[in-house]
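Notes to self, GTP 3',8-cyclase:
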Amino acid sequence: MVPQLTDAYERKFYYLRLSITDVCNFRCTYCLPGGYTPTARPKSFLSPDESRRVSRAFAELGTEKVRLTGGEPSLRRDFTEIIAAVRENPAIRTLAVTTNGYRMARDAASWRDAGLTAINVSIDSLDARQFHLITGQDKLRQVMDGIDAAFSAGFKKVKVNTVLMRDVNHQQLGAFLHWIKPRPIQLRFIELMETGQGGTLFHQCHLSGEVIRLQLERLGWRRQPRGRSDGPAQVFSHADYQGEVGLIMPYEKDFCASCNRLRVSAVGNLHLCLFGEQGIPLRDLLADDDQLAALKDRIVRSLLSKKQSHFLHQGNSGITQNLSFIGG
Ligand code: SAM
Ligand code: SF4
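result:
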């Protein structure tokens, strides 16, 4: 039997979020408002082989699902190679990407051929002008074409991430629902989280997902049960809609009690929480397949220091300046 990664609070970890780059070509107001700033010395991000080794170690510790994220993962020229490398391990049943959708129209079919099984794409507004204002890129049409391309390539469902922002998109539930009525899209509202760089926007625009939940319930949407490797979304469905709505509410009481995921940054540090400390280096154990046992041992030991909860309620986002270095 596969040993299951478990922490001191009896939480089990089935899900790895693997960042493969910090680089991004968008400038989302809540993430990289000034755009990506390259560091003086270009960093080297995990190679396909390193990605394969780290996900294999996690798979041998019970991980069933890996999400590739960033920065913008599809900017990696070897992105399909990374997909194929992670999928080499049959225990990884779900391999997903979170993307800004920039390359989807062009590449969704090749991602699927390489072994990708699920796509999350970020769209904060269905209005092209507003999309441009939020992301710094006039690319809503291109991203929408990407969603069509994903369906044509054989993805049965696409998830869309929408960061909920007061007076930006919080009054647009009607338009979002109209859009997903005939489409198998799970639209997930994510509460805006406070980061080191995003304090001002947070105080202006943070809004509880409760406002959406109440509207959904009034409109007859019903909450679905959650699977063990599912993300943190509360998912709602409605008989008249092909699409679903998800709510991700990190500020809700007990959000951390159902935490089932760990994160590895693009430079190979293990992060026990999205909002935590520097990270535990794993890269020295990713150079060779023979290091697998030592790598697993370090992961298991590190997990013992995972804290019970984040400290976002106290306005403490740890070292997390923005989410592009660790993938949200
Ligand atoms: N570039 C890809 C994208 O945008 O989908 C992947 C990386 S991005 C950091 C991952 C997710 O984090 C996106 O859905 C994004 O909307 C979300 N995100 C980034 N900053 C956030 C914040 N301050 N609060 C809530 N969600 C945030
Ligand atoms: Fe880039 Fe994604 Fe951050 Fe937007 S949310 S700036 S697309 S990494």
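- The radius of gyration is 19 Å.
- Residues 24, 26-28, 31-32, 70-72, 100, 122, 324 surround iron/sulfur cluster (ligand 2) (CB under 6 Å).
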